[in-house]
Amino acid sequence: MARERELIEPHKGDKRYVRRDEQGRFTNDQVDVGRSLAADRRQHSEHKAPRGQGDRGDH
């Protein structure tokens, strides 16, 4: 299973959810917090995602 997302703030006002690979480097799977939360409000999920995997609920 994919690693958990973590919240980072590279500079003030720019919060992002990111994943790291096995070596601890950032992957291309990054999303801005505002966009992620807005997408969550637009749709209701049918399947619950595990903790830390909020973007993996419904595909």
Topology:
Blueprint: E1 6-11, E2 14-20, E3 26-32, H1 33-42
Write structural notes for this entry:
- By secondary structure, the chain is α+β, with helices and mostly antiparallel strands.
- The protein has one domain (1-42).
- The protein is built from one helix and three strands; from the N terminus they run βββα.
- It has one helix at residues 33-42, and strands at 6-11, 14-20, 26-32.
- It has a three-stranded antiparallel sheet.
- A hairpin with a 2-residue loop joins strand 1 (6-11) and strand 2.
- The radius of gyration is 12 Å and the shape is flat.
- The protein starts with 5 loop residues before the first strand and ends in a 17-residue tail after the last helix.
How many whole angstroms does the radius of gyration measure? 12 Å
- The topology string of helices and strands comes to EEEH
Based on CA inertia axes, which overall geometry fits? Answer: flat
Strand tally is: 3
Q: Which structural class do you get from the secondary structure elements?
A: alpha+beta
Features:
alpha+beta
Summary of the model, kept short:
With 59 residues, the protein is of the alpha+beta class. It has one helix at 33-42; strands spanning 6-11, 14-20, 26-32.
